[in-house]
Amino acid sequence: MLIAQITDTHVQLPGGLLDRNYDTAGHLERAVHHLNALTPQPAVVLLTGDTVDAGAPDEYGRLREILSPLQAPLYVIPGNHDDREALRHAFGDAGYLPPTGFLQYTVEDWPLRLIALDTLIPGEHGGRLCDTRLQWLAATLAQARERPTVIFMHHPPFRTGLTVMDDMGFDGAQDLALLVKANPQVRQIICGHIHRPIVSSFGGTVISVCPSTAQQAALDLRPAPHLAVVMEPAAVALLWWDAAADAVVYHLSQIAERPAHVLFDGTQWLMDNPLPPGFHSPGR
Ligand SMILES: [Fe+2]
Ligand SMILES: [Fe+2]
Prior knowledge:
Helix content is 22%, strand content 23%. By secondary structure, the protein is an alpha/beta fold. Helix 2 runs parallel beside helix 3 (57-67) and helix 3 (57-67) runs parallel beside helix 4 (84-91).
């Protein structure tokens, strides 16, 4: 089983600031093309929040249009740039979103159980898991303690070292860590929000942050708050479930056309294979 994650697509209406500066819509088109070209295909694609930039219904219309060629089933959760009700309305026809309340749900069709969390605080940039959301998670985890599980949520509940992003805050991180520790079936938690690739440990499991499909945050671990955008390679995260090893293996697949120099074609080694057109070794 293969799970794909994309995040922080920040789609705007044509001519908006992010649309002009970072071409978020064009980047998402390339991400959809990249996902559709994967072999094998992912069982699901998880879009982990900041799906649009201002939470406006028209933005969701453009988002859905760009996502419509996607072949694998799509599951969406909100980020701080989303509007809970507008997102529910935009994706309600797929049937997995609850009709009221927080946008938390499970996907039960696959060997890995998937649990979606809603960390949105309307009008704020930080994240929160309040008692209601944590109690739902506790009850949901208790339903299937024997099933290997992946949790997906927008805000990372740990400090990343990027001061400006960390200062947005996360309420409920300690309670979440205790809950995860008491449920070792959680094999990994995957997040977005930071616009960088990050991996850490949390509550006795692995936690990761996927880069945005468009603009990235420059790596800056100085304690003084400073934030810059850099167009480092966009990527999708791929979680490959190795059932025999009981392990989630985490890959980042960069969204970039790069010619490949084949070294083994399935039958023989081809070390003398000529480089394909456009292939450049570092330093050349
Ligand atoms: Fe974002
Ligand atoms: Fe965010």
